[in-house]
């Protein structure tokens, strides 16, 4: 089997907006840009509002005369500065990234992933991990400082996610007990200290389904702001004759699927997202907002 690559970048990895790090400490410049800026409002559950397939942005001037302390500068958009801010309630029906992220443009999806990731970090970093004292926000939302001046920067948790196949026409997918019946996905897990990405692929797959993979190969990555992960996509090969053993209890079931089964599910649009109804039968695959979907799709249509 020839090597394969991702057909397209994962949905949350397509944005090209300028993060403009050089402006984050330019207080006067950010104040001057606030009047024409736009703000993405996010509620405490990670909800936001979508209008006609686009993120709803609020005029910054309608929120305050200058950037509030808790607002985070995302970067530069086509029409000016872009910010994000947590609010208690939204004016309109809220949706979430798992349901709506795959229906946004690449630019909106990337901005959303950035906003959710940084706001989720702030929610967990209000106090110093060293002294326990309250921290304050600086650098336009990209740092928190303790009373002693020590700085804490946004945290991203690396995790591998792997499409395991046999080198021919079968792919190994697993499901957790909390997932709907019929929904299967790729295998994933967090990288441990002192571990390379390739070592993590081998360990995680063995822990979850009891098979030894070979030739782990990196394909691409995607931010996953639940709460602040970076998913590092791999493909690896395994022997379907090796018995499955759900060693760590995270995976309830796993199966080897034929390529034809996966292609049929993809072509039929059998993707599942939280809140969707569950069909009575048939293979369900992850929604297109996830890198898992792109890994499976790329294997199914290009690994031949």
Description:
- This protein is α+β, with helices and mostly antiparallel strands.
- It has two domains: about 140 residues, Nucleoside Triphosphate Pyrophosphohydrolase; about 150 residues, Nucleoside Triphosphate Pyrophosphohydrolase (Alpha-Beta Complex).
- Helix content is about 20%, strand content about 25%.
- The chain contains six helices and 17 strands.
- Strands 10, 11, 12, 13, 14 and 15 form a six-stranded mixed sheet that branches.
- Strand 2 and strand 3 form a beta hairpin.
- The protein is globular, with a radius of gyration of 21 Å.
- It starts with about 25 loop residues before the first helix and ends with a helix.
Task: For the structure shown, list the relevant keywords.
single chain; six-stranded mixed β-sheet; four-stranded mixed β-sheet; 17 strands; Nucleoside Triphosphate Pyrophosphohydrolase; 304 residues
Main β-sheet, in a few words?
6 strands, mixed
On the 0 to 100 scale, the average pLDDT is 95
Q: Count of helices? A: 6
Sketch the topology as an H/E string, one letter per element: HEEEEEEHHEEEEEEHEEEHEEH
Determine the strand fraction and express it as a percent band. Answer: 25-35%
End-to-end distance, in Å? 6 Å
Quickly count the domains.
2
What Rg do the Cα atoms give? 21 Å
